[in-house]
Amino acid sequence: MLLRARSACVVAYYDSSLDNDSPESSAEASRVVSGAEVDEAVEGLSSRLSNTDWCECVHCQVLANFRGIECLCCREMGAPVPTAQPYGCITEHQDFSVLCLNIAVLHVAYLELRAWGHTM
Question: Where are the alpha helices (DSSP H) in the chain?
Fold first, then answer.
């Protein structure tokens, strides 16, 4: 299921560490991140809770129960999104509702990720 979603270039929250074919991904995955880098990144994302100026697709919303780390525009999620949806929001893609909003598909994807050892 995950492979089919990838082949359609629709992978929510793209994770480059899942790409086993590139040698850089293993080097990036093994890189140690300092506490200061994490604090700086979280602080930058926390500032997104007060507005949507950071949104590039014009469909992002900030909800009351959001955390700063959840405030990401689909345009900031890596190469697959612009490939699948060159303009506009990924939610406008014809396969978005089938692959990302269907409970059965999400359950199968969850089971596959869990089988591969990915924690949610």
Answer: 2-7, 23-30, 35-46, 80-84, 96-100, 103-115
How buried is residue 85: exposed, middle or buried, by Cβ count under 10 Å (0-12/13-18/19+)?
A: buried
Residue 18 has pLDDT above 80, yes or no: no
Rounded distance, CA 56 to CA 80, Å? 16
Please, are residues 96 and 10 in contact by the beta-carbon 8 Å criterion? yes
Distance CA 84, CA 7 (A): 10
Provide the token pair at 97: 């509702």
Confidence of residue 114 (pLDDT cuts 50, 70, 90): very high
8 A C-beta contact, residue 100 and residue 84:
no
| pLDDT tens sequence across 56-97 | 998 999 888 887 777 888 888 888 777 888 888 888 888 999
Check if the beta carbon of residue 1 is closer than 8 Å to that of residue 112.
yes
